Amino acid sequence: MPTLKHASTLVRLSFAGCVVVLASGCASAPSTPKNPCDDVRYTVHDPVESVNRGIFAFNRAVDDYALAPVARGYRHLPDFFQVGVHNFVANFGEPKVFINDVLQGNGNRSVATLGRFVINTTVGIVGLIDVSGRMGIERHKSDFGQTFGVWNIANGPIVELPLLGTANLRDATGKVLSFVVDPLGSNSDTVQALGTVNTVGGIVDGRAELLPVTDQLRRQPDYYVALRDTVASKRARLVLEGKAGAVTSALSSCPEDQSDDQ
Prior knowledge:
10 helices
C-alpha cells in the first residue's frame, strides 16, 4: 500500500510532467537577434532608491565582513578544488535550467541540459567533473527571471533584496520562485545533504567568481548605481540569449561578459 510520502512524490512528478507538456506545446519559437554582442537596451526604474540604498548598505556590510573575505580565502585554494566545487554547483542546478529551457520552448537547449545532467551526475561523479563540457556539450545559464523576460514580461522597478542583492521586480520574483521549486525532491537524506553542500558551495564559489567585477565597480563614484546598472545590463543580455535559443552561448564571447560567467 503506497505511503503518504510516495503519494506526495507521485503528485509532484505528475504536476511537473504536466507543466513540461503544456509549456512545450504553448511556448512560441524564440526570436534570434542579429548580433548578441551588440549593445543591449535596458531600462532602470528605481522609484524607491532611498529604501533600496538602505538595504544595499546592509548587504554591503554583510559582504564586506563575511562573504567577500571568505571568497578571497577560497580563491587561494588549489585550482582543482575550486573547479570541482564550481562543477558540482552548476550540475546540481541543471534540473532548474532544464525546467526553464522547456518553459522557454527551447527543445535543443532542453536536450543538451538533460544530457549534461545525466552524464555529469554519473560519469562525472555527481558533477565534480564536467565530462559533458569535454564532449562539446557546453553549459549555459537559464533561470525563471530569464524565462519571464523571454515571455516579454516587463522588468518592473528595481528591488534590493536582503542578502540576495539588486534585481528588477521580474528577476526578484524569479529568485524567490527558484527557492520554492525543488525538482530533485527533498525526501532523500542524501539529496538533502547534497543540497546543503550545494547551497554553501554555491554562495562561496559564486561570490569568488564575482570578485573581479565587484572590485572594479567599487572604484566607481557611486557603487550602488554602478552595481545596479551592471546587473541590469547583464540580465538584459541573458534574456537576449534566451530569446536567441542557441545551445552554445554566444554572449560568452563578448568582451564585456568574459569577466562574469552569466
